[in-house]
Amino acid sequence: MTVHIKKCNMEDLQLLQEMSIETFNDTFKDQNSPENMKIYLERAFDLKQLEKELSNPSSHFFFVYLNDNVAGYLKVNINDAQSEEMGHESLEIERVYVKNDFQKHGLGKHLLHKAMELAMDYNKKNIWLGVWEKNENAISFYKKMGFVQIDSHSFYMGDEEQIDFIMTKTFN
Questions:
Q1: Is 40 annotated in the active site?
Q2: What architecture is the 3-170 domain classified under in CATH?
Q3: Which residue, among 140, 154, 36, has the nearest Cα to 84 in the 3D structure?
Q4: Helix H segments across 29-168?
Q5: Strand, coil or helix: what is 161?
Q6: This prediction's pTM
Q7: Are 20 and 73 in contact (CB under 8 A)?
Q8: How confident is the model over 33-60, as a mean pLDDT?
Q9: Mean pLDDT calculated for residue range 30-58
């Protein structure tokens, strides 16, 4: 089993969109209405929106490959690209998604380790993320990886307000 991580660039835009829609839909479609999923997917993963995010020097996307197959991706933000004001000593993990067929192979850990490596490269003191309060598998995974819940915030899925737990990990 060979795992490697590659930074995304503009040539990856179409694949990034496909990966984003597939993984987000697979993760959340059973807990949300089709209407709200459609609204969210069209807004968050529109090609122009993804192009804007990819071109932001404070946001970085990475694909994770398992045996040369694109299996998932990571999006991290620093500075003013963070979705919440967490300060310049923080790095945000905005998205960690692994395709269903590639789950349970440790790829999430590889992506989190990449985020931690980036945080250290940028001299950040902590990393943080938002995770839906009903996503128990993800919450459990992040806790195992050393994250603790410090707060919560609203996340809108279409017209439905949901609660995301804000979890953080501080470096010593």
A1: no
A2: 3-Layer(aba) Sandwich (3.40)
A3: 154
A4: 34-44, 47-55, 107-121, 136-144
A5: strand
A6: 0.94
A7: yes
A8: 95
A9: 95
